[in-house]
Amino acid sequence: MNYISDKAIIGTDSKIGMFSVVEDNVEIGEGCIIGHNVVIHAGTKIGNYVRIDDNTVVGKKPMRAANSIFKDEKELRSAVISDGCMIGTGVIVYAGCSIGKATLIADMATVRENVIIGCKTIIGRGAAVENFCKVGSNCKIETNAYITAYSEIEDNVFIAPGVVTSNDNYAGRSKERFNHFKGVTVKKGGRIGAQATILPGKIIQEDGLVAAGSVVTKDVECENVVAGNPAKYLRKVPEEQLLKNQ
After folding, report:
1. CA 206, CA 100: separation in Å to the nearest integer?
2. Whole-angstrom Cα Rg for the chain
3. Whole-number pLDDT of residue 1
4. Residue range 168-204, pLDDT digits in tens
5. Among residues of the chain, what percentage have pLDDT more than 90?
C-alpha cells in the first residue's frame, strides 16, 4: 500500500513500488521506476526516466544539533533529480540538492542539502557529499569517499575509494574555528588516490595527482604528482595521462 498525495504529478508509464510515500507537490516525469519503501518529500522534482531504488529518501530536511555551526534556513529549495539519473538503495538526497542528467548515486550514499552535482557523474557506494558542495560533470567519487562541506570539485575529477577531505584546522575546538571553515578544491582533471587525506582549504590544480595514502598539507600544482606524508612533489604527470590527451 502506498501514500501518493493527490497534489503530486506522476508522469505516464512511471511505476511506484509498494509502501512508498509521495508527498504534496512532488513531480515525477515519464517512464520513471520508483522502488519499494521510497519516500519522496514535498516539492521534489524528478525528471524523466529516473530510477530510484528501494528504501531511498529524496528531499529530506536536515537536522541540526544544538552546537551545530549550521543554522536552519527558513526554506530550502526543492530537491531536483534530472532526467536519466539512477539513485541506488538506501540513498539519502536532501532538500536543496540539484542532481544533473544521467548521474548515478550508488547504494547507501548521502548527498546533503545545498549541493549541486553535474551531469554523468558517479557518486559511489557509501560516499558522502556534505552541504554547500559543488561537484562537476563526468566525475567519479568512489566508494566511501568523504567530501567535506564547502568543497568544490570541478569537471572530470577522479576521487578514489576511502579519500577523506577536511575543512576545520581547529579540530572542533574554540569558537575561532567558525571564522576559518574552508573545504577543498579539486580543479578540472584532478585525481586523488585511495585513502589519501586532503587538509582544509587545499587546492589541487588542473590535472594534479595525489598518490594513494598521501596527506596533502599544501596546494598541489598543475600537472604535478605528489606522494607521502606530508605529500611532496614526485614527478610530472605523464603527457599521455593529461586530460587534454584523453
Report:
1. 22
2. 19
3. 82
4. 876 666 666 666 679 999 999 999 999 999 999 999 9
5. 88
Q: How far apart are CA 155 and CA 241, in angstroms?
A: 16
Please give the grid coordinates belonging to residue 82.
534530472
pLDDT digits (tens, 9 = 90+) for 134-177: 999 999 999 999 999 999 999 999 999 999 999 987 666 666 66
Separation of alpha carbons 144 and 99, rounded Å: 19
Residue reference for cell 587545499: 202
Please give the grid coordinates belonging to residue 37: 519503501
**Which string of DSSP letters, residue by residue, matches the chain?**
--EE-TT-EE-TT-EE-TT-EE-TT-EE-TT-EE-TT-EE-TT-EE-TT-EE-TT-EEEEPPP--TT-SS---S-PPPPEE-TT-EE-TT-EEETT-EE-TT-EE-TT-EE-TT-EE-SS-EE-TT-EE-TT-EE-SS-EE-TT-EE-TT-EE-TT-EE-TT-EE---TTTT-SGGGGG-----EE-TT-EE-TT-EE-TT-EE-TT-EEPTT-EE-SPBPTTEEEETTTTEEEEEPPGGGSGGG-
